[in-house]
Amino acid sequence: MWTKVFWMDTGERALKTFAQTLLVFLSAGWTSVAEVPWWQAVSGALLGAVISLLTSIVSSFVQTDGRVRTASLVSTVSRVRRQPETDQG
Description:
Blueprint: H1 4-26, H2 38-62
C-alpha cells in the first residue's frame, strides 16, 4: 500500500469513478446543463470516489503473493509458461 504504483493506480480508479458517477448524474434526464443540480451531482461523484479509494485500500491488505501491490485484486503479471523448445529437424 505504500508504493507509488499503488497510489497511482488508486488515484486513477478514484478519478474514473468520479467521472463515471458525474456522467450518470448529468445524463439522468435533464434537458440542459442549467437544470442539473450540481451540488448533488458533485457530491454523489465525490462519494463514489471515496468508496473507490477505500475499496482500493482494503484490497491492498488481501494480497499476499509478495508482488508489487496495486489497488486491484487481479494479478498484473501474466503467468504464461514457456513451452520447451523441441528439435524439429
